[in-house]
What does this fold into?
Amino acid sequence: MLLVMTSSVLTPVAWAGTSAWRRPATAPPPAADDHVPAVARGWPVGRRPEILRGWDPPAGPYGPGHRGVDLAAAPGDPVRAVAAGRVVFAGRVAGRGVVSVDLADTGDPPLRTTYEPVSASVGAGDEVEPGGELGVLETPTAHCPRACLHWGLRRGEVYLDPLALLPPWLLRAGPSRLLPLHNVPLP
It folds into this structure.
């Protein structure tokens, strides 16, 4: 069951000397073309990092929620591109290092992954391959209870679950195992 809470707070709108009150606009629901293909070839940090906090989409553009997932990692760990693409931003936002990558062949507008806090080793315009190093994880911020990478995904202005980029075999917690077959006729 999915519960969505909306804000009942009224916000002032003052345009051209008029004053009015309105409810905040809500984010549009994901459109049918917001399908997320499983294009990732690996995790951005580690083999199967612990997920400290999952994706919790906001009900509106400024509403509470979590617009990505937090993956446990240590400061200095390499942060890697999950899929091929082009770096569209590598710099500091609100004191944190951020890298944003538009993923190749994912539609128009393309899917965009974000990684923070990262000390970037790439720059805007650089092409990256799956597993290519984007930089290293910076020291912890107040965002996580311990060091983590915040990994986000969006198409245009719509936030999406970045875990949807991973194929199912990468999401499994343990190694694959072969099980014995019983009562199967031999060829």
User: Anything to note?
Assistant: The domain at 37-56+66-169 is CATH 2.70.70.10 (Glucose Permease (Domain IIA)). The chain has a mean pLDDT of 80. The longest helix spans residues 168-171.
